[in-house]
Every structure is written in structure tokens, then in C-alpha cells.
Predict the structure.
Amino acid sequence: MKPVPFILVIAALFSASSAFAQTNAPAAPASANGSVTPVKLPPQAPDVAAVKMRPDGQPDAEFLKHHESLVAIAKQGKAELVFLGDSITAGWESQKPIWDKAFGPYKPTNFGISGDRTQHVLWRIENGELEGFKPKVAVVMIGTNNLGADLAEGIAKGIAEIVKTIRQKSPSTKVLLLGVLPNGEKPSPVREKIQQVNAIIAQLADGKQVVFLDIGSRFLQTGGVLRKEVTTDFVHLSSTGYQIWADAITPELAELFR
């Protein structure tokens, strides 16, 4: 089947869902005992770059601190392979033997931040995480934390914005876009939403600069049940899960680095 032009996919996604721009919420006043009453935060559109917010309406200091550390790594200009994502990606930090064996030759760096949604990754790459270096390949897996709040079309739209922004900031960087992994022990409406997201973002691939790979089936057994040994909580991966991930993408990386 002839690949769909990237710009047409972006246009289709923009017409598929509506978005609400984020505004900064004021900090909630402290009560007499010093506790902070949570404020009702405005929705963050999955395709609009946004800082991660705390329940009191202020920017998340840990998120910003982690971001700054990643900006510093980018400025060193050494990494040739970057992983972008949420806690599932960040979990590679505890899998050093698998990471080093599978990705070590590519001078990798891990830009995963726990709790991130598409809008947060987008904000990060718009604010310095792709400045100072031009990685040969970016591995992108994001969207799990959007599943509870956003429609499939909106999540896909956010992922498309991330891919587009990477390509704009670093045209020489190839993108290995991974499908959102299945979560929850058994098939469910959430799983159906994941399938919808993955079906849409698969159209972003051109087979050259952007390659899409859905590795989710490798984590499932008969009937769509998630294999217990591959996760720690039916969302985050175990060492077995990370080995499956590594084995699934190393052939693609070898091709992309040629």
C-alpha cells in the first residue's frame, strides 16, 4: 500500500479532534494548617506543548529539574540514539545490562520522564532537549498516560506533533515510532483505544525517515491476556519485558543506523 504523505496525516488528525489550550492556574492558598488545597486544573490538549503541573496549580519542580538535566545532556552533543517517553521509557535506567548490550554501540541516552503525556514530551523537545545534538535515531513511545483523559484521535494528534517537531528541529534524525503498549491484564475498552491510536499513528510512517513498529503483540498470550512475566503491574515492564522490547527493535535500529 502506498504510504500516506505525512502532511496529509497531520491535516487529518487536526480535523479529527478538538483541543483546549492550557492556561496557568493560580496557586491555591494554604490552609491554616499549612496544607495546600488542590485546584481544578484546566485540561491540557494532547497536541499543545505544556509544562507538567502540580495539584496546587504550579509547574512541577521535579519535572523541570529532570528536563534541565536532559537539556544538559543534549548540549554535550554525544548521543546518537535518544529514547523519548514516559515512565515505561524511563524504566530503562534500571535495566543497564540489557540496555548496554542492545543499544550501547549506538551511544544511547534515555529521555524518559515518569508521568509524561504527549503534551509534556512535546514541551520538552520544544524547549531544549533537541538543542546541541542531532541524534541519528529517536525512539518514541508515548501516550499511555493520556489514555484516561483523551480521545484516541487526540492522543494520535499529540504523537503526530511530536514526530513533526523532531523532524523540524533535526531533519537528519530518523524516528522509530513505537505503538502504545497494551496495558491491563485482559482486553478492555482501554485496549480498544490503544488499538485506535496505533492504527492512526501507523500512517505517519514513510518507511525511511519515520518507521512505525507495533510490538504490543509480543507481550500478549492467547485471548489477548497480558503475560504476567513481562510486567510488574500490567503497565510497567519487568526485565523480561524490556528484553522483549530490545529484541523487537534492534533489527530496525540496525537498518536505521546504516
